[in-house]
């Protein structure tokens, strides 16, 4: 059953250079308990999408179209009060950096308690019991509730943010690069914990990351974003077996895989200027497979198979293009 339905969402940022189309026609259905990975390079609109879902957009952002339906209500038309009710109890978010998100002069336990008391009026003893339960849930000794954030390691601080996000048992958890500041071993521990918690508590998760490998390990489905658009979506299995957008092929090349013959290949160039995006396919200027019409025709999502779609005019040829995409020279030389 769909718990969160993003339907044709458009968002613009007002900038000195003019309106920047940060999100264009985003469509996404999240089923209860499902984990979706949102991948793409920096600047593709991943964080903007999560902020829009939470209703915590910067002041210069405007939603210019579409709906964000949560639990039967379109939060975009229902407005600030509906969003306030949905936030944390319905949809919670783990921020990127625990250092910025935690108050350095407040004890950790008190900060988790605040995540509860800001929304619920529970007796004090119940709040304290829940704080202890939450710390235990994320693998932190509840005895450390009276410590300050600086007494915790980076990984433990990130666990505290997870505890805060889960405090009111939200059915949807948004995670924006929750482990970027941590080393790979700690990152692995945190994700193992998140997987266990999802198994126990059954929340749905939207995980934003530039790391396709994290998505493969932690998610059921993948959404690939480029230049504010969804360019490919499908199950993790479908997208790993048959990536069908040249941009996804580029991201795929950047993955380190066992038995790989060469170094990870990076995609040359930069994501598009969202104030003045390319006329046709937004990826065409960087795409080794772009044809002349790709520079003038903006592709719609094309069905690859049931539940798998890609926004590319050459999607039907992808089986023949894919082997070429795996070669480093494809991404170096002139377009074939
Ligand atoms: N407050 C803002 N005002 C103007 N432009 C913004 C603002 N916030 C983000 N942008 C622009 O919107 C686009 C999308 O940014 P966003 O942060 O959503 O991307 P991202 O994919 O999450 O990147 P990252 O991984 O670096 O967080 C970028 O071009 C960015 O420069």
TrEMBL record:
PROSITE patterns: ABC_TRANSPORTER_1, ABC_TRANSPORTER_2. It is found in: Cell inner membrane. One of its GO terms (biological process) is transmembrane transport. PANTHER family: DIPEPTIDE TRANSPORT ATP-BINDING PROTEIN DPPD (PTHR43297:SF2), OLIGOPEPTIDE TRANSPORT ATP-BINDING PROTEIN APPD (PTHR43297). Residues 6-252 form the ABC transporter domain. One of its GO terms (molecular function) is ATP hydrolysis activity. NCBIfam families: oligo_HPY. One of its GO terms (cellular component) is plasma membrane. It comes from Gemmobacter megaterium. SMART domains: AAA. Its main location: membrane. CDD domains: ABC_NikE_OppD_transporters. Belongs to the ABC transporter superfamily. This is Peptide/nickel transport system ATP-binding protein. InterPro entries: AAA+_ATPase, ABC_Ni/Peptide_Import, ABC_transporter-like_ATP-bd, ABC_transporter-like_CS, Oligopep_ABC_C, P-loop_NTPase. It is a peripheral membrane protein. It comes from the Bacteria. Transmembrane segments: none annotated. Keywords: ATP-binding, Cell membrane, Membrane, Nucleotide-binding, Transport.
């Amino acid at each position: 059953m769909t718990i969160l339905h993003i339907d044709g969402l458009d968002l613009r940022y007002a900038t000195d250079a003019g309106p920047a189309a940060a999100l264009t026609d985003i469509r996404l259905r999240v089923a209860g308990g499902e984990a979706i990975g949102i991948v793409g390079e920096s600047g593709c609109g991943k964080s903007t999408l999560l902020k829009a879902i939470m209703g915590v957009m910067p002041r210069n952002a405007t939603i210019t179209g579409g709906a964000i339906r949560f639990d039967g209500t379109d939060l975009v038309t229902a407005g600030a009060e509906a969003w306030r009710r949905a936030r944390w109890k319905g949809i919670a978010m783990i921020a990127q950096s625990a250092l910025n998100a935690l108050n350095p002069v407040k004890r950790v336990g008190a900060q988790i308690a605040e995540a509860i008391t800001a929304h619920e009026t529970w007796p004090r003893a119940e709040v304290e019991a829940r704080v202890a339960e939450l710390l235990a849930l994320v693998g932190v000794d509840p005895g450390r509730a009276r410590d300050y954030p600086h007494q915790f390691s980076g990984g433990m601080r990130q666990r505290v943010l997870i505890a805060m996000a889960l405090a009111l048992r939200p059915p949807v958890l948004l995670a924006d690069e929750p482990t970027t500041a941590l080393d790979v071993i700690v990152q692995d521990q945190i994700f193992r914990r998140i997987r266990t918690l999802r198994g126990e508590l059954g929340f749905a998760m939207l995980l934003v990351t530039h790391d396709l490998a994290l998505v493969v390990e932690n998610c059921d489905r993948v959404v690939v974003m480029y230049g504010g658009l969804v360019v490919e979506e499908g199950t993790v299995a479908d997208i790993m077996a048959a990536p069908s957008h040249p941009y996804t092929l580029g991201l795929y090349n950047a993955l380190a895989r066992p038995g790989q013959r060469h170094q990870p290949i990076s995609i040359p160039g930069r994501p598009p200027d969202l104030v003045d995006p390319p006329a046709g396919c937004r990826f065409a200027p960087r795409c080794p497979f772009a044809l002349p019409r790709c520079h003038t025709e903006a592709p719609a999502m094309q069905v690859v198979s049931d539940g798998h779609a890609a926004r590319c005019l050459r999607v039907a040829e992808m089986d023949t293009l894919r082997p070429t995409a795996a070669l480093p020279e494809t991404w170096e030389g002139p377009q074939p």
